[in-house]
Amino acid sequence: MAQSVPPGDIGTQPGTKIVFNAPYDDKHTYHIKITNAGGRRIGWAIKTTNMKRLGVDPPCGVLDPKENVLMAVSCDSFKYGEEDTNNDRITIEWTNTPDGAAKTFRREWFQGDGMVRRKNLPIEYNP
């Protein structure tokens, strides 16, 4: 039943983008709060467009209604101006968990017929 109902909204803090500030000769970490604003348990997962520069911890999880999690996004050192950063972003994907499922993340929730929602957070690099 849960798979036929669209997943509710999530909230993120920050809401629209992630900003990293120079210098980039050391690793930076930025924290994002993800809140399940809907009325059902959801499974969530993070994708990045640049796996070698950007890392996320934890990369996935399960949230009950109104529950939140603090996630760390890290940016490894790189040569600013010498690498293309225009398309860097992280994408949060989430879907309802099946009724009665344990509160343990399962990748297959995203591979069935259930609806998966996405939120993109572009990454800005200030010189």
UniProtKB/TrEMBL annotation:
Keyword ATP-binding listed: no
Subcellular localization: Cell projection, Pseudopodium; Cytoplasm, Cytoskeleton
InterPro entries linked: Ig-like_fold, MSP_dom, Nematode_MSP, PapD-like_sf
Keywords: Cell projection, Cytoplasm, Cytoskeleton
Classification via Gene3D superfamilies: Immunoglobulins
Protein's job: Central component in molecular interactions underlying sperm crawling. Forms an extensive filament system that extends from sperm villipoda, along the leading edge of the pseudopod.
Entry protein name: Major sperm protein
Species, as recorded: Panagrellus redivivus (Microworm)
